Amino acid sequence: MTTTTLNQFELQDRFGRQVTARLEAGTAELPRDVGERLRAFREQALTRRKKASLRTAVAVGVSGGAATLTFGDESVGWWGRIASALPLVALVAGLFLIHTIQNERRASEVAEVDAALLTDDLPPAAYADPGFLQFLKSGRE
C-alpha cells in the first residue's frame, strides 16, 4: 500500500476512536435498555467492518508475480458451483472422446492388417516361418 492510503486509514481509525470515546462517555447517562441496544449495534458495526475489510483485502492478492482474484467471504451459490465444475466435465468428456477415437483407429488398423493377411496369396503360417524372413531379405538384394 502507498503512504497516502496508510495515512487515510490512520485518519479513519483516529476518527473512529474519537467517536467511540464520545459514545462511551455519553452511555453512562442513558437508561440501561438504550445502552444495551447501542452496545449491540456497535458490535454489529464492528463485525460488518471486519468482514468488509477482509473482503477487500482478500479480493486481489499477489503471489509470486501473479495476481489472483478471489471472492472473499461471499459464498458461491449452486449456479457458481455448477459453472466452476463445467470446465472439468468438458475436460473429462474430451479425454474420453479422444480415448474412444484412438481405440477405434487402432482397431481399424489391426483389421486392415488382418484382412491383408487373410486375402493374400500366401497362407498366414508362411509369415511365421523363419525361412520366409530370409526369403524376403534375399529378394530385396
Which key terms come to mind for this protein?
single chain; 141 residues; mainly alpha; two-stranded antiparallel ribbon
Brief characterization of the structure:
This protein has 141 residues and is mainly alpha-helical. It has a domain at 77-141.
Walk me through the structure.
The chain has 141 residues and is mainly alpha-helical. It has a domain at 77-141. 79% of the residues lie in helices and 6% in strands. It is built from five helices and two strands. The protein has a two-stranded antiparallel sheet. A hairpin with a 2-residue loop joins strand 1 (60-63) and strand 2 (66-69). It is rod-shaped, with a radius of gyration of 38 Å. The model has no long low-confidence stretch (mean pLDDT 78).
Terminal Cα span: 81 Å
The fraction of residues assigned to DSSP E strands is 5-15%
Oligomer: single chain
* Residue share in helix: over 70%
How many helices? The count is: 5
**Largest sheet: spatial strand order:** 1-2
Shape: rod-shaped
* Secondary-structure element pattern, one letter each: HHEEHHH
Rg, please? 38 Å
Count of individual beta strands: 2
Which structural class fits the helix and strand makeup?
Answer: mainly alpha
Low-confidence spans: none
